[in-house]
Specification:
The protein has about 425 residues and is α+β, with helices and mostly antiparallel strands. Helix content is about 60%, strand content about 20%. β1 and β2 form a beta hairpin. The longest helix has about 90 residues, at about 155-240. The relative contact order is 0.07.
Length: about 425
């Protein structure tokens, strides 16, 4: 969420910056056009001023009236225009800017005016050392030249460009401000969204826990009710004293069996509760030979298997080592073997241990009737039974596979089931390798 807010604010800032740069590019392009237009306008103005001045100076020069020449030149000088009167050879007759009498025969504006009658040139002044806009016009045996500082002519353009530069800086600052503001707003929105999501998760978790508590109480009550009814019924008949010796023994056997079911159920509930509150980590467990544990557990169930006419085959890979709680892992394998004996339809069982990639695989397989696919996702839930009546008749509590799952989780692993109808089932516990 935080990365998304940064991306959003960054996008906004990039868009603002792109707009500022686009406007800057357009403005810069227009400023060049403005400069060229302004330059052409300045050239036209000074050419016109040169033409007017040349006509007046021509009459004064023709009459040999040097004071009038000086008067007209001084008038232009007060307007910020330099006036130079040159001979056809390039010599200086009069210059408002200097008393030096340099040879101007090689100056561009002078040569062009002799050739074309007039010229406008922008160049660096050899006399003043600054760039000037020159306009020269040939009048009789003289060339009249007017000049203005190029910087002063282009001052409006410079100011316009300065304004554009300031606008660009302001645009960058605005883009940065947009980025900062949108980022802070996005972070605040994300914080509120995170807080809202956390509240939703808490409410959902509270609802889930309440639903779990209610279902758990209902399941436990239901599971205890049946064997408890058997115990209560048998005791009531014994208390009435209307039974003979054989019937009393039968009633006591019923009470004992149903009490055992209640005891097993309570024990499984306590074991499951302890597993659910244990930390899911195998880091502190000792290194164990998993094959040796599986062999020991299979040995413990061999008598029950013989009684049911079932063979327990073994496929144990040697040297399979993992960190494990021996007692809990023995209980998990025992639950799987017990389930296979109860629900495997009298078919033989195989207990296997092997390493697969980076984990240890412990599997208990049978060749029984198999399990319908729709039941597989829920097999490891508490009190979930495929055939409730048959499970109770066989003495199951409905918690065995849930205990297996939590033992696997406690070791940092997982439990799963694979089954095909008519071909049997495989219950598998995967643990991390040491």
């Amino acid at each position: 969420m935080h990365e998304k807010s940064i991306a959003t604010s960054f996008t906004a800032a990039v868009l603002a910056l792109a707009c500022a740069l686009a406007l800057g590019a357009i403005a810069f392009s227009q400023s060049r056009s403005f400069r060229d237009s302004f330059e052409r306008m300045a050239e036209r103005d000074i050419r016109l001023l040169t033409e007017i001045t040349a006509e007046r100076l021509a009459r004064a020069l023709e009459a040999g009236d040097l004071p009038e020449v000086r008067n007209l030149a001084s008038l232009r000088q007060r307007e910020g225009v330099r006036v130079t009167v040159l001979e056809a050879s390039g010599g200086v007759v009069f210059d408002t800017a200097t008393d030096r009498r340099e040879d101007h025969s090689r100056r561009d504006e002078f040569k062009r005016s002799l050739a074309a009658g007039e010229s406008v040139v922008i160049r660096r002044s050899d006399t003043l050392g600054v760039f000037m806009l020159y306009s020269a016009r040939k009048v009789g045996d003289h060339v009249i030249r007017l000049a203005v500082p190029y910087r002063e002519v282009m001052e409006p353009v410079r100011r316009a460009r300065l304004g554009l530069a300031i606008s660009a800086v302001v645009g960058l600052l605005v883009a940065f401000a947009v980025f900062a503001i949108t980022r802070r707003l996005s972070q605040r929105i994300d914080a509120l969204a995170t807080e809202r999501d956390a509240q939703k998760r808490k409410l959902a978790e509270a609802a889930r826990m309440e639903r779990f508590r209610r279902e758990f109480v209902e399941n436990v009550s239901h599971e205890i009710k049946t064997p408890l009814a058997g115990v209560v019924g048998a005791v009531e008949m014994l208390v009435e004293g209307k039974t003979d010796g054989d019937e009393r023994r039968s009633l006591l056997a019923i009470a004992q069996k149903e009490s055992g079911r209640i005891e097993a159920l309570v024990e499984d509930i306590l074991n499951l509760a302890r597993l659910e509150h244990a930390a899911a980590s195998s880091a502190n467990f000792p290194l164990c030979d998993i094959g040796e544990i599986a062999n020991s557990t299979a040995d413990r169930y061999r008598r029950a298997a013989d009684r049911d006419g079932v063979m327990i085959h073994r496929s144990i890979q040697e040297g399979v080592i993992a960190r494990a709680d021996r007692e809990k892992l023995d209980a998990a394998i025992g639950n799987l073997i017990s389930n296979a004996l109860k629900y495997g339809g009298g078919a033989d069982i195989e207990v296997s241990v092997r390493t697969v990639n980076s984990h240890v695989e412990i599997a208990v397989r049978d060749k029984g009737p198999g399990i319908p696919a729709e039941h597989l996702p829920r097999l490891f839930e508490r009190f979930y039974r495929i055939d409730k009546a048959r499970s109770r008749a066989l003495g199951g509590t409905g918690l065995g596979l849930a205990i297996v799952k939590h033992i696997a989780l406690l070791h940092g692993g997982k439990a799963r089931c694979e089954s095909t109808l008519g071909k049997g089932s495989a219950f598998i516990v995967e643990l991390p390798c040491a």
